[in-house]
Fold these 2 entries.
Entry 1:
Amino acid sequence: MTPVRIGLLGFGTVGYGTWSVLTRNCDEIERRIGRRFEVSHVVVKDLSKPRTPTASGLHFTDNPSTVIDNPDIDIVIELMGGTSPAYEYIDRALANGKHIVTANKELIALRGNELFETAKKSDKIVAFEASVCGGIPIIKAVREGFAANRISSLVGIINGTCNYILSDMKDLKRSFNDVLEKAQELGYAEADPTFDVEGIDAMHKLVILASIAFGIPLQKLESIHCEGITTISYDDIVYADELGFTIKHLAIARRIESGIEIRVHPSLVSKQRLLANVNGVMNAVAVSGDAIGRALFYGPGAGSEPTASAVIADLVDVARAMNGSVNTSVPHLSFQYDQLKSLPIIPFNQTETANYLRMSALNQAGVLAEVTRILGDHEISIESILQKSSGHHEEVLPVVIVTQETLEANMQNALEELQVLDTVIGEINRIRIEALA
Ligand code: NAP
Ligand code: HSE
């Protein structure tokens, strides 16, 4: 049979990984689909960059038309990142009758609806497994494997860079910046690493997962609460550990009676929970559904070949579908296109979590009483208080408070009052505590 012809847009961490795995495992992959994949043209931004010598036989160009307008190419793999020009290139490639495989979560989260519409009109596939959780086939699992279920929640660690940073800060006592640099060297971080550490990348991924899980349209980012890990200090990690918790950057999408909660933020997770023990670049997602109960997916969430593994799994699916009509294949967001239903997204201040608060307070009589009074005024009950002293008289002492579950709005109001107390020095650090089922 004739080979399936592929054009690559991007040859960085994931592009190179995809080419390497395709080359290395070509025989094994051919046995799975009965055809060979043939990568011919590769579009990059900077042609003068030295490319790995083993990537011979490829035609490198900075002219996207060589791929997207090339009648000899069947599938375009987009691994450039960003929304533009990626959107325009994919849109044109679809119009030119090509199937698309992409790892670009930002693009799918922000412009997926438009791309799926175009794909549907052109009877072509847009496949995006690699966009969420690197090598873990979480999209396929939720979209196809759990099709029997009414899904109630997805809770997970879905940014490898954040998890790598938090793990190394804890285990190796390294500074945030040192660990971030290492994550960049290893190819885990986004081209702009603020996307990782500010939680934006996890938010993009959660938008995609929530849509597939609940049959809702891809949500606008404004409706999602998003916090990153830049305010987490080594002290927080140590105090959390003493209290029996590990700090994790969590993505949470949960169905409650009145709607859907969608949020991304650091959380204290009990050390006994599986998620607390997911370390380094690994990702994990716990999916709860009425039939399955609870299932946990675990695996490498970023990196060259783990991500390539997901890209190639999509390629295999597309190649198989090329033998029949793609309209009979699985809908992009799992539910039939006319069956996506909007559900109310719960305002973030109406969600409830327990909280960890760390503040520096003057070492004076009555300070703690004032702090606990303010919490009480806002109907916030205290679970435990930790006050650290070296035994010598110090002017300022760290105070760590763990609250019971409380309404986000109450916590925010209490924090505003606490923050302006003369006896509280500097910023109060607050991290939510997620009670995982
Ligand atoms: P990367 O290492 O920065 O590589 C990007 C590639 O795209 C480079 O080859 C670059 O060309 C090319 N490129 C960028 N803008 C271009 C443009 N305007 N025209 C032509 N080529 C352009 O990025 P990556 O880490 O491989 O990530 C690629 C995509 O995969 C992103 O959407 C990312 O979010 C996603 N992803 C990454 C990972 C991961 O672990 N890294 C995991 C899952 C998903 P030059 O080589 O000339 O600079
Ligand atoms: N920058 C992303 C992460 C890559 O660290 O999770 C994988 O999507």
Entry 2:
Amino acid sequence: MGGAPQARAMASTPDSGRVGPLRRGPLDLVATGDFTSVAGLETGVSGLTVRNLGRAILTEDGTGYLPDPPWVLAGTHLTISGGFTMTVELRDIGGEAAVLLAGRPPIVYDEFVNDRGSLRVSVAGSSARARLVSATSRQRAVEQRTWSVPAGSAHRLTIQFTGTLGTGTLRIGVDDRDPVSFPAHGLFASGQVWLGMEAATVNGSFRIPSWQVISAAGSKVAAVDTTPLRPGDQPGMGLQELATVSHPGFLIGAALSASSLYSDPAFARLALGGQIGLMTTENALKFQFIQPQRGLYEFREADALIQTARDNGLAVHGHTLVFGEAIPRWVRALPAADPTHMLGVMIDHIRTVVTHYAGRVRSWDVVNEPLADDPTSDGLRRNIWRRTIGARYIADAFTAAHEADPDAKLFVNEYGLEAHDERWATMRGLLERLIGQGVPIDGVGLQCHVYDGEDVIVADNLRRVLREIADLELTARISELDVFGDNPRIPTDHHQAEQFATVLRTCLEEPVCESLTFWGLSERYGSTSWLDNGQLEIGDGLPWDEQLRPLPAVNAMRTVLTS
Ligand code: XIL
């Protein structure tokens, strides 16, 4: 749809790509919007076709799955100054067809979703449903309505928003009959409308031939395109820019996600403006997101994220091909007793994903966290791959990745190697076995999560591990550094800046250490943040705070890079 003349005529702004003219007439999103990077969605002459993805998020305790419907992140959303009426034509409905709207898109982690307020309107058979989650209620519905509609495979959905942005009222109708109405609970306080669409039934699908938006009297509605996202270089020297001067070739990186980059221009400026030269795909390439159903590889979202990184001069590290977590339902339901079957699934996944990204992803976490928390007989975690395929899954994974892209650098990634001697000893044993078998492995990722006092990294210890990695003729990368924050009640506590500086300095001093990556940049989207019983607890382990202000750690690292 991107080729439509109206879309091309859109003017450009530095923050968010093309912005449509503020308009009063109807806006036809299907004709003018960019939906090419939406998971599960195909664009064509007959409109948008939405297919069931079955994407879901495995909860941390491994017992259940949370819904993960597709959102338009890289692509079109709306800015509004007040009320609007949206009319969505739904055709050829198989199963449940849902349209989603949000003031800010949800932040998707691999174990939970931070829903920042969303409306989901759906029809299935002869029943319609509207469900509103507010910004503060998180996962819980604050409004919910179910009503009857004429049975049929075609419906017209009308969503009307009236009143002021911070409060407002929603009126939702199907086929122009008996609309339901309820308060919007500040859904559009941001002045933005982000779009989602979901074919929610297994094998279900539907088509959207037309999606019109009309602004209310006195209100303005415009379509905004988030791609291409090129916020440009930021004033002053970023960490990567300093590193490039003092240590050419050394990369500073961060784990990043699509929702934060595309929906937050200030964050995009921080992430893409010179602080980093390497992006790790925080969650986008994990198994449950990339192959949510057997043989259904959904690359569109991750492709956009990787394209944006590369457009802005960032190299890309792929995380992760084989991991015991973030596994889709269908893999967990496979017959565990059949090792050949599981091996086939693992190899197919690796081959397909690595081949798809050959030339775009420079390095991979082929196997993530293979070690047990408390070493068992062979030290290996009894994850689903180890339990079914056996210990050989690691060697087989590396071989498959190497065959798919001989130029990619292949890493095993693990926590605690830098701070816990017995974990490093176990990893060393594993590496020696792999090297002995001629397995094509290039290096080790030291996660360096400093979550509490026990994880504190001592320079000499890290140095010794790095040198032993060099002795094995492997490469090392610091892959997921974050450090719990200083205790505000102890004014002399400056351990956070000290730890960031120590790890960076030690890495720079040891030639084997090729790069240093933070597990995120800002606590606004920090992976040490946590959602517990609907309460969001903001973490404190990253170099920039929730307001995107640099913590002392940033200055400490700048000093290391320039001295
Ligand atoms: C983290 C994700 O970033 C979070 O979004 C998720 O909720 C928990 O997992 N080591 C890893 C990463 O290799 O995959 C983990 O990622 C953090 C620990």
